[in-house]
Amino acid sequence: MNVNRTLGKCYNHKRIYRLMKCVNLQSVIRKKRKKYIKSTPQITAENILNRKFIEASPNNKWLTDVTEFKLANGTKAYLSAILDLGDNSIVSYVLGHSNNNQLVFETFDLAIKNNPTAKPLFHSDRGFQYTNKVFKSKLDSISATQSMSRVGRCIDNGPMEGFWGIIKSEMYYLRKFNTFDELKLSIDNYIDFYNNKRLQKKLKGLAPIEYREQTLSA
Fold it and tell me: Maximum CA pair distance of the chain?
């Protein structure tokens, strides 16, 4: 014991603990790192997108990812979204309490429900949800082509990462969110604004949905 060694004494450790408790003295203990069990991906794909982020028409190239939000009470929420490179629109999104397969599956199902004829090149990182066999079967069912970022290369999914930066800087970082429902309402309102009112130079000064409707009807 350091106290005994420093003072040249032989105090019982229980006495030391009792005295520390009396003066509300506690040692600083480093938190143990969580042990993560590495999982072997069931399905992987090449980086077919290969940073070719320019696309003239909607429903040809879709990007997806999940990002985390923290609430004021310490709990977390997870936003899964799919972005169309053809018009920069968010074609579907789901906010959930957990970052799991179901969150991603629901996002994909919603995108296909709204775009039943789409057969896009579908790009993601190598997260466990996207390397799942069930997810691959969903892509195969609509004849979509799967593409994945290289390990540790976030830039391979750059536009999706860019959208996360936009929504967080323009909505999330500006206020505190106390409840999940409060955050969800704000995300709903922001994505509606982003899709329908946020004008983009890339889209010839149009909002994503405005550009999308013009392109698909041409």
Answer: 89
pTM: predicted TM-score of the whole model, two decimal places: 0.80
pLDDT at 40: 63
Residue 1 pLDDT exceeds 90: no
Side-chain half-sphere CA neighbours of 155 within 13 A = 1
Where do the domains of the chain lie, and which CATH numbers do they carry?
Answer: 61-217 (3.30.420.10)
Q: Check whether 5 has a pLDDT greater than 60.
A: no
Per-residue pLDDT tens digits for 59-107: 999 999 999 999 999 999 999 999 999 999 999 999 999 999 999 999 9
Three-state secondary structure along the chain?
A: CHHHHHHCCCCCHHHHHHHHHHCCCCCCCCCCCCCCCCCCCCCCCCCCCCCCCCCCCCCCEEEEEEEEEECCCCCEEEEEEEEECCCCCEEEEEEECCCCHHHHHHHHHHHHHHCCCCCCEEEECCCCCCCCHHHHHHHHHCCCEEEECCCCCHHHHHHHHHHHHHHHHHCHHHCCCCCHHHHHHHHHHHHHHHHHCCCEHHHCCECHHHHHHHHHHC
